[in-house]
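PROTEIN DESIGN WORKSHEET
SECTION A - STRUCTURE
LENGTH: 260
TOKENS:
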């Protein structure tokens, strides 16, 4: 049996990057997954990446996490479809690269709407569904190493990811009586469309960008989507039944310090 056998999960931002890797890995581990993204075509591509024999356990749905009625409806869909919700992966996120002094207010607000308010909305509706279940549940939030320390040109993204770490701690405390756990993943630079866009904004090729960003990672490479997906499997599984309120770096040693 898979590590997530019998569990029902909702993954936001599942149309590409880390969300796609998590959704595919969850299905492989036996979960039933509602794959959501503001880009429905991306969700369909994610479903196509799942082996045909397992594809019946995944469903695509368009979702803008900054709109509460859509979040509420998506959670209700999962509950009605599978009889409950065991795992919420609040992964959807956007960036607005640029120095703070030059960052338009509209960009700042849009990042907070998706990366912070979107996580709050996903968490609140997941919590409402999970706290009525004897099984409890697991809320997995995608933060970032940029939420643990300052990063130039990520003046909106970093603060949004720092804020969700405190949100996760509060969720962990409020969810504990109902056996609802909440944890955050904090990846370092990881191969994804968002990192590709950041590198392009620096005027670098993908190869140049990977080499430059890897300088601050002791293991000497960027993260891969599956590096994050495996951690997301652990936090969704019963293996982590006594783990809540944690910010887990997936960073190749970045937070440990710098190599001489």
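SECTION B - SEQUENCE
RESIDUE ASSIGNMENT:
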């Amino acid at each position: 049996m898979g590590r997530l056998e019998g569990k029902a999960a909702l993954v936001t931002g599942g149309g590409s990057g880390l969300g796609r890797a998590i959704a595919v890995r969850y299905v492989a581990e036996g979960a039933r997954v509602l794959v959501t993204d503001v880009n429905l075509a991306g969700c369909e591509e994610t479903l196509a990446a799942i082996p045909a024999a397992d594809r019946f356990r995944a469903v695509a749905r368009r979702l803008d996490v900054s709109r509460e009625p859509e979040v509420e409806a998506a959670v209700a869909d999962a509950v009605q479809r599978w009889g409950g919700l065991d795992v919420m992966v609040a992964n959807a996120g956007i960036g607005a690269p640029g120095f703070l002094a030059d960052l338009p207010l509209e960009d700042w607000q849009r990042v907070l709407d998706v990366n912070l308010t979107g996580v709050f909305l996903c968490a609140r509706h997941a919590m409402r569904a999970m706290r009525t279940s004897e099984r409890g549940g697991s809320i997995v939030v995608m933060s970032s190493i940029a939420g643990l320390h300052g990063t130039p040109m990520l003046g909106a993204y970093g603060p949004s990811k720092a804020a969700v770490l405190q949100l996760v701690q509060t969720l962990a405390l409020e969810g504990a009586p109902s056996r609802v756990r909440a944890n955050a993943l904090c990846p370092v630079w990881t191969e994804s469309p968002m990192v590709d866009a950041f590198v392009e904004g620096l005027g670098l090729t993908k190869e140049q960008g990977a080499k430059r960003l890897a300088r601050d990672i002791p293991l000497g490479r960027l993260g891969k989507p599956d590096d994050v997906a495996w951690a997301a499997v652990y936090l969704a599984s019963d293996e982590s039944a006594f783990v809540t309120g944690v910010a887990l770096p997936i960073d190749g040693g970045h937070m440990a310090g710098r190599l001489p």
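SECTION C - NOTES
The two ends are 45 Å apart (CA to CA).
The mean pLDDT is 96.
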